[in-house]
Each structure stands twice: as structure tokens, then as C-alpha cells.
Amino acid sequence: VAEGEPGEGREPFELPRFWDALGQTFQVTSQEATKLSLAFSRPPLPSAEDCRKLSEDVQNAILAVATVYYWLPKGQGTTLRKMVRDATTEVVEGMIQLTDTILNAPVESLSQEQLISTGGVWEACEQVSNLPRGEYNQAAVVSALAACLGVVKDAVEEMEHALVEGQDPYGDIMEDEELGFRGNRDTYWSEADRQLLSSCMGLMKASKACLKKVLAAVKAHGKADSPEQIAQLDDLADIANEISPSVDELALSMYPPVNPLAVRLNAAKLASVLKKVLEIAKTSHVCPPSEEGWVQFLTGAVDHNMNKVKNFTQDQL
């Protein structure tokens, strides 16, 4: 499941039928996990014949889950397929863990590990109800973009909080006797640092705005009626996934002691990713003429803040 690629299939693919079948197989797997766990929850152990039947039922349930996952053709979009694959892999891994726990547990009583592993399978099986089921790949891309936006929002808020005038960025770390008093330049921002970091904050805020606008555009105009539209949505999700790690890297380099060249490098990486997101959005179907204004505005904002970062670090080169 983790490595394999679903085929295109001979029969016409029907998404509602796929979701129904996937939901049923996940439900059956959850039930089989319960049966297996209960059979080994107290003495006496099941007979050899009962064990054979139990393991057959578990194996059939897992094979059914994998089979239905393989129904989902590539053409439905890589974002949707990755989400379904992750959910399917979690179920299979959960069942492996439960089986291992039962094999290694003492027979006398139901172990804590067995309870946790059984709950893990239930939880993994319930994930199917959280998978985005809207219009093919469009709902999956909306879900992926919303997740990215949440992470970036948190990063921006955290850095804004740390940059409050006069605040010790390491104020939440207890003073260590060995480290001594944190009153040196290694733990505080200079005025020059703060000027540089205000432009970096501009880039981080542009990242948040960029994801917000792309998400709204995909919700309003995103379609999955043709292979081209599906591929464009996948491209947007893929490049948007690069924003959050780039924001994190920039944020980490902004903590004192500030190395201006490291900050400049990470700012340039983030600016490059944002420009790519805006370019992909602009040339895709989610960006009709009515959306071009914000693309232009945000492209200008990215350039403006990156130029300020360059100016502040020019003498470091």
C-alpha cells in the first residue's frame, strides 16, 4: 500500500461507490480488531481452529481495505490519493501492531498495550469519515491548503509574540545556573536585528495571505472535470506544502544570536516558494481575471520585503 501505485482500472470509476466501499471495509476491519482483541483478553486461549478463523477474517478485512484503495485511479488526483493512501496505511500498520502486541503479551490478563493498540485500530478506521469527499480532487486540495494555512498562522503568531518590543525571546526558558544570566547579545535582539526581522515578518505575513487567497480561489473556482484541472490543483497543493517548512526555517533563523546571512538565505528561499505558488495559481483555472489583482499585489509584497532584507544585509556580503 505504501509503495504501490493504483492502476487505472478497466471499469468506469465511480467516486460515490468507492467511498461507500472504503467506509465498509474500514468498518469491518474495526470490528475484526475488536473480535481479535476480545478473544485474547482472558484465558482460556482460543482453540487452534478458532485462531485460524480469526486470523483469516483479519487478513481478509485488511486485503479488502487494500483492494478498495487500489480502485482509486491516478487520474483522480495525487492529493486525494495520498490522503486515502495515508489513511489505509495507518489501518494496516495498526492491525500489525495489535497482532504483535497479542503475540507478545502474557495470557493472564488484558494488557494496557493491547487496549492501546485496539484503540489505535479503531481510531485509524474512523479516519475514513474525515477524508474530504467533495468534488474529486478539489476537496482534497482544499483540505491540504487549509492544513498548511493553520501551521503558517501559528508560526506567524508565535514570532509576532516573540518580537513584542522589549520582550525576552527566551523568556519561557528557565534561567540555568550553568548558563548564567541571559543578559548578553546572544539572547536579545539589537535595533539592527529588529529592522531586519520586520521585513522577514512581512514575508511571513505574505505567506499567510498567499495561502488564504489561494485557498479561497480553489474553493470558489476549483474544478476537477478534466485531467488538466486535476493536475493544476495537485501542483498548487504540492508547492503550497513547501511554504510551511520554509516559514519555519526562516523563523528559526530569526532567533538571537541573529546571523544576517542565514536570515537572508532563508528569506530568499521563502520568497522563491511564494513566487512559485503565485505563478502556478495565476496560470491555473482557479485564477480567472477577477482574481488577478491579489496575485499582483502579493507578488509586489514579496518583492518589496525581500528587497528590504537584501538592503539590510548588503554589508554582510
From TrEMBL:
Main location per the UniProt record: cytoplasm
UniProt domain Cyclin-D1-binding protein 1-like N-terminal: residue ranges: 22-163
Keyword field contains Zinc: no
Compartment(s) where it occurs, according to its Swiss-Prot or TrEMBL record: Cytoplasm; Nucleus
Any GO CC annotation of this UniProt entry: nucleus
Domain Cyclin-D1-binding protein 1-like C-terminal: 175-279
Keywords: Cell cycle, Cytoplasm, Nucleus
Family stated for the protein in its record: Belongs to the CCNDBP1 family.
Protein name per its UniProtKB record: CCDB1 protein
